[in-house]
Amino acid sequence: MNCALILKTSMAEVIFGTQNINSSNIRLCEIAWNKGIRSYDTALAYNNLNHLNNFFKNLQDRSSYRIISKITKGHIEYEGVRKSILKILQKLNNQDYIDTLLIHAPKGVDHIKVLNELEELRQDGLIKKYGVSNYTIKHLRSLKNSNIKLDVLQNEIHPFLQESELVNYCNRENINVMAHSGYAHGLVFKNPRIKKVANLLNVTISELILSWHLSRKISPIFFSSDSNHIKNTDYSKISKISPQFFEDISGLNTNLRICDNPEWSEF
Ligand SMILES: NC(=O)c1ccc[n+]([C@@H]2O[C@H](COP(=O)([O-])OP(=O)(O)OC[C@H]3O[C@@H](n4cnc5c(N)ncnc54)[C@H](OP(=O)(O)O)[C@@H]3O)[C@@H](O)[C@H]2O)c1
């Protein structure tokens, strides 16, 4: 069976996070590719696009994979939106376009101005979709009132921070949701309730958690520095888990926010 097909439902897909990718572990991107992953989450702030380039440049068909990237307030102020995006494209071996471009975080950003510039870049073909990351429902409502239509929201979402109101809002507004830190930085692997459900279903915890995200129409972004953790995830099990088994996970929400940096967020 083709993993890429299983990993992607009509609304959501599993994404590999590259924040901790460097020259010594770039092969993890390829291991994820061999397991069927076709989308990679990157950012100018991760300072590793030159390493990622060594992976992307070997892929033949540009339409077979997707690159998500992000720019921060600093990039916007220092170089401007267009120049920042041209810089990402240039660092990625002169790619023609970025699939999804996000504002990395809200604090201090002139949202409307930047999103209007992103719309221009979309019309110019340099990006396909755009959106925001680490924004609250209050931000999203205010953008809607200014007639801004977002394609994507990327926020911290995992079993301990389920963000149901935000997710339901995005589903209603046709905003695709990506969950960063989808494994709660590894905490899901230590939770006895999650372990119990995974054992009951005879799936690994990673298979269970990725399936739970997809069942909520959320694209989970995950990272592992251990190649065996990626290799041992059987993506053919994802999507076969019956939703009734997610009830135990739904009860785990404690609104635990792990990524809360007042320098850039407004939670
Ligand atoms: N937009 C934003 O502001 C933002 C913020 C944070 C992150 N992100 C994105 O989200 C991506 C993922 O975030 P993250 O790495 O912080 O968190 P994560 O994916 O939630 O968790 C990674 C942790 O899970 C562990 N893990 C993964 N698979 C495992 C397995 N099968 N068994 C046991 N442990 C396992 C990893 O340990 P091992 O290494 O030992 O496998 C690692 O400690 C980032 O790379 C980035 O692309 C975006």
How would you characterize the overall build of this protein?
With 267 residues, this protein is an alpha/beta fold. It has a single domain, classed as TIM Barrel (Alpha-Beta Barrel), CATH 3.20.20. The protein has twelve helices and eight strands. It has an eight-stranded parallel barrel, surrounded by five helices. Strand 5, helix 7 and strand 6 form a beta-alpha-beta unit. The N terminus is likely disordered. Bound molecules: NADP nicotinamide-adenine-dinucleotide phosphate.
Q: Give the CATH superfamily.
A: NADP-dependent oxidoreductase domain
Major beta sheet, strand line-up: 1-2-3-4-5-6-7-8
Main beta sheet, described? 8 strands, parallel, barrel
**Are there runs of 5+ residues with pLDDT below 50, and where?**
1-5
CATH class call: Alpha Beta
Bound molecules: NADP nicotinamide-adenine-dinucleotide phosphate
CATH topology: TIM Barrel
Q: Element order, helices and strands?
A: HEHEHEHHEHEHEHEHHEHH
Strand runs, count? 8
Number of helices: 12
Report the oligomer.
Answer: single chain
Radius of gyration: 18 Å
Shape: globular
- State which percent range the strand residues make up: 5-15%
